[in-house]
Amino acid sequence: MAQLWGGRFTKQTDEAVKAFNDSIGFDRRLYRQDIQGSMVHARMLGKQEIISKEDCAAITEGLQGILDDLESGTLEITADYEDIHSFVEANLIDRAGDAGKRLHTGRSRNDQVALDMRLYTRDAADSLREQILRLLEVLLDLMEKNTETFMPGFTHLQKAQPVTLAHYLGAYFEMLRRDYQRIGDCRTRMNECPLGAGALAGTTYPLDRPWVAAELGFACATRNSMDSVSDRDYLLELLSALSILMMHLSRFSEELIIWNSNEYRFVEMDDAFSTGSSIMPQKKNPDICELVRGKTGRVYGDLMSLLTTMKGLPLAYNKDMQEDKEPAFDAIDTASACVPLFAEMLRTIRFNKDVMEKSAMRGFTNATDAADYLVGKGVPFRDAHGMIGRLVLHCIDRGVGIEELSLEELREFSGFFEEDVYEAISLRACVNRRQTAGAPGDTAMREAISQERAWLKAQG
Fold first, then answer.
1. What is the number of alpha carbons within 13 Å of residue 61 lying toward its C-beta?
2. Catalytic site residues?
3. Distance between CA atoms of 121 and 398, rounded to whole angstroms?
4. 5 has a pLDDT exceeding 50
5. pLDDT at residue 284 in the model
6. Stated pTM of the model
7. Spatial contact of 347 and 385, defined as CB atoms under 8 Å apart
8. Cα separation, 196 vs 162, whole angstroms
9. Where are the extended beta strands (E) located within 236-372?
């Protein structure tokens, strides 16, 4: 198969070099974007009278035929071609003759691939954001059902203060909402059209770059032709956002793995999202969570690979930049597989509410509220902190909770304790006294859920 650039060369490329150089093995997935960009480019060439209306019509008809045949499976992308651009152009020439040879007027593969990748990445960002929205809807549904599901909150993996499951899940809602927004911010910055930048210095043809940008749904044309073809920061930004997204899913997965253990028993995974052991018949493993946790490192690796590729490249285009596609595709594919699976796993999970509540009762999670109770009776906080610390030691020695001590026992540590202490340090009271914005109290939580529901609805 003749290459698009062979005129200056006097002999064929070595087969090993060709195999090493070709990108058709992975950039074939860009065929829709390549054809879409080429059709708009051809229409612009015709509009600007750079090519004839007849050639424009032949080109667009030929490109549409290629797209239709690829989608129906009657045409196959083979390894005979160097890249997706040469595949499309060669097939176009076969169908449209000399008219097909005019498609590349005013265009380089440098700005062509830059366009294809922006179009592909923009579509991927839109799809990922839709997936995150569906995950957020699952989370919010669970939050609405669990505003009175009491559980321990943790610091240092030790029980700290009582919260509700709704509040706990709300923390991940906020993280994932930021992921949704971060990918949206990235999409905004990538939404500039590089077509018309040429190899690096534009072209002498009277291209209408703003028209092309508008036809392809871009906000504008890029402002510097060298920058247009020589940077991939929009890919780096997306991979960074995906790394943060995967980090959040990995943290969530880690907690669910812990909660699924025999020691915690906070959750039970649905059979459809669990696997067994080949030797231990009693096992029910949280493999989806573990795989999400493991694949997070893979996305991190994709980001570091592309950062390393780009770190020393002089302006403008360099062949190194062909290495942008595989890590970008891999990161997008990985995140796109993890998010919907995680959402379905979470939707089917069963929370053992009684176990969660009993766990909150057993970990002195009401110790801070006991200290606050004494403060409310006039004891300085630092003194109250010390009194409750000694009280906790006493309870540990006896193997009981603060609420299990008699009033007489409590008064051995402070004469300020009264009968109302038991209500004050109950789980419900501990949670529901916390009504500041963002806290787990029932009123604050209902307001937060209402705001989250309105925000989700506004996203369409």
1. 11
2. 156, 277
3. 61
4. no
5. 82
6. 0.91
7. no
8. 60
9. 267-268, 350-351
